[in-house]
Design brief:
40% helix; 5-stranded mixed β-sheet; binds zinc ion; 11 helices; 325 residues; alpha/beta
Length: 325
């Protein structure tokens, strides 16, 4: 049997709409993957069965016994108590409450199991396999429905007291801002997430502003961040205005993070990062302009190298990094 830290990992991305299980090697090779719908509205027990089924099929196809892997690591959105392996009220899995998912997985498969917040997984994944290879101090931000964060400080993932560090989406950007789901007001993700961009666009379209997206909007279709990006590339003035609005707020949050952590690199992942340079370049310009000069000069801002596989690659990286520490 190969030495533990060189066995592959069964990495799982537990999302609100899909569950992805992947077999990943120490060198970052994704051998095989299995995707199933989460069917979150069917409730907790059903979702856990979906997760088990995805792992069962992946393992069966791979010909590798689950007990011959380095373990199963689940990355999930929401607050994770990493000391106790408990996920609490994940926002995309309604009605879950507190679930000891780590021991549930361990008991089912009889292997070491791990549970990690997906944004932290993203940071470890980019550090071991992606854009942040060889970087000692980096911040990884995922811009999606909300905003997640993970910090690699002195080459290690920073956990905080129980693993809750990195809730960057809820740092206050405007003390008089609108109410956030977290209970606070004016949080960063109300301005710089994909959801925020879409909401702001729909506000402008409701006001009747001229845009190529009006037709889609009037047909009752959801106008997504990727629609906005596409329209911006065709020089739609409203789409360009929205991208600039969003980039400015992304930049403002990054200024705070750069000033606090002095990272060499900020890696930007998540759905919004796919918009590319038209969003990330002006955000970087805000950092260069507003962050403390020597800190701003030292940081580079880059898009994620792992793309859609970021959560599973990160979940695997977490197990490998643990083995290496
Ligand atoms: Zn908040």
């Amino acid at each position: 049997m190969p030495e533990t830290r060189y066995r592959p990992v069964v990495a799982v991305d537990l999302g609100g709409t899909k569950i992805e299980a992947a077999m990943i090697t120490r060198s970052g090779q994704l051998l095989d993957q299995e995707r199933v719908p989460t069917q979150a509205n069917e409730g907790k027990a059903h979702v856990i069965e979906q997760l088990f089924g995805a792992i069962d099929r992946l393992v069966e196809r791979s010909g590798i016994e689950v007990t011959d892997t380095a373990g199963v690591c689940v990355a999930a959105a929401g607050p994770v108590d990493m000391k106790r392996g408990i996920i609490s009220d994940p926002p995309n899995l309604p009605g879950w409450g507190s679930v000891p998912l780590q021991s549930i997985v361990r008991d089912r498969f009889g292997v070491d199991s791990y549970l990690i917040n997906d944004a932290k997984a993203a940071a470890v994944g980019e550090h071991l396999f992606g854009a942040g290879k060889g970087i000692d101090n980096m911040v990884c931000i995922t811009l999606g429905t909300g905003i997640g964060g993970g910090f690699i400080l002195d080459r290690r993932l920073y956990f905080g007291a129980f693993g809750g560090a990195g809730e960057v989406g809820h740092m206050t950007i405007d003390i008089n801002g609108p109410k956030c789901n977290c209970g606070n007001m004016g949080c960063w993700e109300l301005y710089a997430s994909g959801t925020a961009m879409e909401k702001e666009m729909s506000r402008h379209l409701t006001l009747g502003e001229k845009s190529s997206l009006q037709q889609l909007f009037k047909a009752g279709e959801p106008v997504t961040a990727s629609h906005i990006a596409e329209a911006a590339r065709k020089q739609d003035p409203l789409a360009l205005k929205l991208i600039a609005w969003s980039a400015n707020y992304i930049g403002i949050g990054l200024v705070n993070l750069v000033n606090i952590f002095n990272p060499q690199m900020v890696v930007i992942g998540g759905g919004l990062s796919k918009i590319g340079p038209i969003l990330l370049d002006p955000a970087e310009a805000v950092v260069k302009q507003r962050a403390s000069k020597i800190l701003a000069d030292a940081v580079t801002i880059v898009p994620s190298a792992l793309g859609d596989d970021i959560a599973v690659m990160g979940a695997a990286a977490y197990v490998f990094e643990k083995g290496a520490i």
